[in-house]
Amino acid sequence: MNLQRVFEKYLAWCVKKAFNREKPMVIGVAGSVGKTSTRAAVGIALGANEQGSGVVMSDKNFNNDLGVPLVVFDCEMPRKSPFKWIKLLMKAGLTAIGIFRLRAKTFVLELGTDRPGDLPRLMGMVKPQIGVFTAVGPEHTEFFGDVAGVAKEEAAIVAMLPKSGTMVFNHDDLMVHEICDSLDFKRTSFGLHESADVKVVSLDVNLDNEKTEESGLDIVFSIQGREKRLRLTGTVGRPQAYATAAALAVVITFGTDVDAALDRLGRNYHGMPGRMRLIRGIKKTWLIDDTYNSSPLASLSALHDLEHFPVPDGGRRLAALGDMLELGSLAESSHDEMGRAAAEAGVDLLVCCGTLAHTTAKGAKQAGMPEDRVMTFAKSSEAGLFLQDRMRENDVILIKGSQGSRMEKISKELMARPDLAEKLLVRHTPDWLAR
Known about the structure:
This protein is α/β, with parallel strands linked by helices. The chain is globular, with a radius of gyration of 21 Å. The chain is built from 18 helices and 15 strands. It has helices spanning 3-22, 35-45, 67-73, 82-96, 118-126, 141-144, 147-154, 156-159, 174-181, 238-254, 258-268, 296-307, 331-344, 357-366, 380-390, 408-414, 421-424, 430-433, and strands spanning 25-30, 55-57, 106-110, 130-133, 166-170, 186-191, 198-206, 216-223, 226-233, 277-281, 285-290, 317-321, 349-353, 374-377, 396-400.
């Protein structure tokens, strides 16, 4: 066992001690896709980090054995800094024994998993009273084997709730619904389904070429029989509708003011960097930047949103798709399916990047895309330069791939305002740019 693992075990003990003593409300968010966006939407809807709200969430996807204690104890990622490690360990210890107090009465925590056992271990650390279950799909199947293995792991977010706990779950995801139906907890559902407690009635992209910062997504919800509207700026796509619907489901579970939550979401939720962000591109184009990460479920969702995007007159639908990583034996079939989905979505020009680009390209061609509209590149930087030459006014370009594909480099290449890259894109901090 290495030294960091020893520290993580100690930090987990400190979290348990502090939580057992002060008993904060803990909202855990887990699932194959949408965790970070949902966690952000839930936190914003509840007034996280507002003066006097008593609600705290992380601004980053700190969702593992080290990240969760960093959120709880309000510390920076220590990396290789001995000083930061000492500060974290001392603050955690003093909070555990009651000399320091927790900084909030409610914690909204994202709980992730890479390998079997990760999520149950985190659940045992923080013991949420509300478990938000976003979706089940192929992720990290290199380690879980198949989707059934993923489902078994992700189910911990609801299966390990206390008897008084509440499940907030995606009504539209069949595996999630089946898991939650097998459990005897209070429940609140969200989704497009007619029976969802928070139902997404409609979502429409609104483009403003003059005030581009006002462009975004108009969503109509039905919440316990009442119609509510929300305008999100700077983002598009069904994932944002699901994230905000989940947030509103948590709000009604709390019994707090829905209208106040909608106001907070409209003002402060613009999607997370790299997650279906709507960005103005060069040559009066639009970029859908979804470069934070990728999985089969997320890529199919993004292509669906591209297919239904209201392309301005004369524009085309373009897609730059990078590798989806950690899929193990499902890698080839998943990339083939992604290529086929791009063709079926009516993509006019497909750019495939990475080691499995040929598989994605083959799937697209076999589904009917002409060969001269499918290009492959080993590196995302090469693809960005190619797209610069091929883009035309009013085109809409979806850019998506796993972290290792570094597809955000394409987004920066194509942004009308590359000076905003650090604010709008993922992996544009100094340490990432040096890699």
